[in-house]
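Narrative of accomplishments. A recurring question from our advisory board has been how the design workflow behaves on a single, concrete structure rather than in aggregate. To address it, we present the structure tokens for one chain from the evaluation set, followed by the sequence designed for it. No filtering or post-editing was applied between the two.
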């Protein structure tokens, strides 16, 4: 059957209906009544007198192979599994292989046995040693390398390669044994289209395939008129697709053999053998190779199970060490972030990010803009687990920050605190090397350079642009297990926070008692006094009222944050310079004894919630006033660079103790480092300031230099996302 095949339609080529065989054997096919329906053109050369198409098989037929006729007749009466018989003739020994095709056709294949092909010595002296060698391997890559060495020794092929298929169907040469004159192909990648789906199906059905001579013309299979093409899926002699023939010829390969690696009914990989000259190996050797392939599949499955068990043990070990440490930690977020290195090692990735309550820790090289944009999107979308390995699947508004990152798997740790763990993989073509020589020249057939190793590799690179290595089912399962462990711990931590909140309410009631008593007493005295005394009492009432207002606002913001509601923002274009000047003027008016030195350039603008930024500045100024050295000025500096606005609030004072720095922006720290001038504060100002800046996708940090305590705020000039001009929540 003549088939016109090109690169555009090769995936539809019916290769199981080849209509021809390789020339080193012959083929006959009978219906169940013994009538010959198909016959290769060279059958008489091998068998002698062959029935005419449409005739029944008789005892005198196939005279060159004495007994072949009766063996086929017996098989027609009682079809069994594939049967192999050896027939001795004056011309040598032949193998007769019988199987049933499509349920109603008995196929007989005949090929001469190669001289000196007795493999009993191999089995008796080498096979047990080979099995022990394979079972001693502890990782798949080393196992495949040992197998390719053994296959080359067994078969004599010039090159033996182990391919491993990826989840997208593409493949990689992961091990190789070769003649020293051949180039190194380890690390070679090729697209899934190199092995079309119909070929993969046949590799599952017929797990060993020999092409003895690429250049030998195929032998046409004659068929009785009106009969459909013969299903040759299980035929050893089936001829080869012209596309594959051209591919082998372009590489200078004259013979090849493949052995499928099948795991759980799926094509996991292949052993591929190449020879630079025609090379037919005996059926005994082929069956040895088939048996070795079956053992290899079993060993790979065992090692995969070991790998999965080992990775789950790593999660269990991390659970034993990390979770109790988190539960006992004074600073839960800091303890969680410090474990980023251990968690990153659980899932193969190029980098990892962990974020808790607006603070992030990173292992690997990840741009800050990427982290900020992704956390903002995740906090809006709130998925439990998100995984992608293609840039085209990433939300459109995030693609501009991807760079060479293509794979992201994010797991939600705690939705209350907007906490995430991100695993990151870079573009696949950045992580793969080509093992061959760039200057190597290959023969180019009529279908062009695509059907060469380097052309195939170039096609693969084109196919996988914008992709990382896909997340495996085991990767996702491990992430799910880790998420559940961290979620349970975070829930326990949140329950403890709820107890603290109740304590805070009790503490607030106590702290409000003093200013209320002061207001009550001052009001009573006002009724009895006039003049200057009443002015002083009015000032006292004003100060007590402002203190109560500040306490109430802090508690309300704290309650929203602890409930996971975030702080409402109204983002508008804002003149930051004018905002800071106004706040400084109000502060100096309210506290005339405080000196302020300011450097505020004109016309610094950004998209912010002006009221919330004013709240941040008020908290920082209040903090500087309470903790700065008496008589020393508070310094305020404002500047802008390309992408962000920078605000510095400084006060003269000693360095904050290291144990306090770690919890500066945390709530519930009232008793840590209490100032004599701020005994009644709740310790929430810096926490709320941090949350406001985080909601603006900025950051705030502490540093001490040249005798000054500094709090430094960085704000992006533009909030990422389409919601910039709308009311949004952190």
């Amino acid at each position: 059957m003549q088939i016109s095949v090109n690169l555009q339609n090769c995936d539809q080529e019916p290769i199981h209906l080849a209509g021809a065989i390789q020339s080193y054997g012959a083929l006959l096919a009978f219906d169940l009544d013994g009538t010959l329906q198909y016959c290769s053109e060279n059958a008489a050369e091998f068998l002698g007198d062959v029935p005419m198409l449409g005739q029944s098989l008789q005892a005198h037929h196939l005279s060159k192979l004495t007994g072949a006729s009766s063996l086929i007749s017996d098989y027609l009466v009682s079809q069994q599994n594939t049967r192999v018989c050896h027939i001795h003739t004056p011309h040598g020994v032949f193998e007769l292989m019988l199987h049933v095709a499509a349920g109603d056709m008995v196929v007989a294949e005949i090929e001469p046995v190669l001289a000196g092909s007795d493999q009993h010595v191999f089995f008796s002296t080498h096979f047990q040693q080979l099995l022990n060698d394979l079972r001693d391997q502890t990782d798949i890559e080393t196992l495949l390398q040992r197998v390719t060495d053994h296959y080359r020794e067994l078969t004599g092929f010039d090159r033996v390669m182990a391919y491993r298929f990826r989840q997208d169907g593409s493949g990689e040469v992961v091990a190789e044994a070769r003649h020293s004159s051949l180039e190194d192909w380890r690390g070679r990648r090729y697209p899934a289209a190199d092995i079309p789906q119909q070929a993969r199906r046949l590799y599952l059905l017929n797990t060993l395939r020999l092409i003895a001579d690429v250049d030998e013309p195929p032998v046409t299979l004659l068929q009785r008129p009106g009969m459909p093409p013969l299903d040759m899926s299980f035929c050893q002699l089936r001829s080869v697709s012209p596309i594959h023939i051209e591919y082998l010829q372009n590489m200078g390969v004259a013979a090849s053999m493949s052995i499928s690696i099948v795991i759980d009914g799926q094509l996991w990989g292949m052993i591929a053998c190449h020879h630079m000259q025609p090379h037919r190996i005996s059926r005994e050797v082929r069956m040895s190779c088939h048996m070795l392939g079956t053992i290899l599949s079993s060993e790979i499955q065992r090692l995969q199970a070991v790998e999965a068990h080992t990775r789950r043990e790593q999660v269990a070990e991390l659970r034993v060490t990390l979770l109790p440490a988190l539960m006992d930690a004074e600073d839960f977020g800091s303890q969680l972030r410090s474990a980023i290195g251990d968690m990153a090692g659980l899932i193969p990735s190029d980098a990892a990010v962990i974020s808790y309550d607006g603070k992030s820790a990173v292992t690997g090289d990840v741009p800050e803009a990427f982290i900020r944009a992704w956390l903002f999107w995740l906090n809006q979308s709130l998925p439990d687990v998100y995984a992608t390995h293609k840039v085209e699947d990433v939300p459109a508004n995030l693609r501009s920050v991807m760079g060479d990152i293509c794979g992201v798997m994010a797991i939600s740790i705690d939705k209350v605190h907007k906490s995430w763990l991100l695993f990151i993989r870079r573009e696949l073509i950045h992580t793969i090397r080509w093992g061959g020589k760039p200057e190597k020249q290959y023969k180019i057939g009529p279908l062009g350079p695509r059907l060469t190793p380097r052309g195939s590799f170039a096609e693969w690179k084109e196919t996988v642009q914008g992709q990382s290595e896909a997340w495996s089912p085991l990767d996702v399962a491990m992430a799910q297990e880790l998420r559940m462990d961290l979620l349970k711990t975070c829930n326990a931590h949140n329950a403890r926070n709820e107890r603290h909140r109740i304590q805070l309410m009790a503490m607030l009631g106590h702290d409000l008692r003093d200013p209320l008593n002061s207001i009550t007493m001052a009001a009573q005295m006002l009724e009895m006094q006039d003049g200057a005394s009443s002015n002083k009492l009015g000032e006292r009432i004003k100060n007590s009222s402002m203190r109560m207002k500040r306490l109430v606002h802090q508690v309300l913001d704290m309650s929203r944050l602890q409930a996971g509601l975030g702080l409402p923002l109204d983002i508008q274009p804002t003149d930051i310079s004018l905002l800071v000047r106004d706040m400084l003027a109000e502060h100096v008016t309210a506290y005339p004894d405080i000196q302020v030195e300011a450097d505020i350039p004109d016309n610094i603008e950004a998209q912010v919630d002006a009221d919330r930024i004013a709240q941040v500045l008020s908290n920082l100024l209040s903090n500087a006033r309470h903790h700065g050295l008496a008589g020393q000025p508070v310094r305020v500096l404002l500047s802008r660079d390309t992408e962000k606005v920078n605000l510095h609030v400084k006060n003269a004072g000693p360095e904050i103790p290291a144990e306090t720095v770690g919890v500066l922006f945390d709530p519930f720290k009232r008793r840590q480092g209490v100032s004599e001038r701020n005994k009644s504060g709740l310790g929430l100002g810096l926490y709320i300031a941090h949350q406001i800046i985080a909601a603006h996708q900025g950051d705030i940090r502490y540093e001490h230099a040249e005798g000054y305590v500094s709090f430094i705020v960085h704000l992006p000039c533009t909030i990422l996302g389409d919601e910039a001009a709308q009311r949004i929540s952190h």
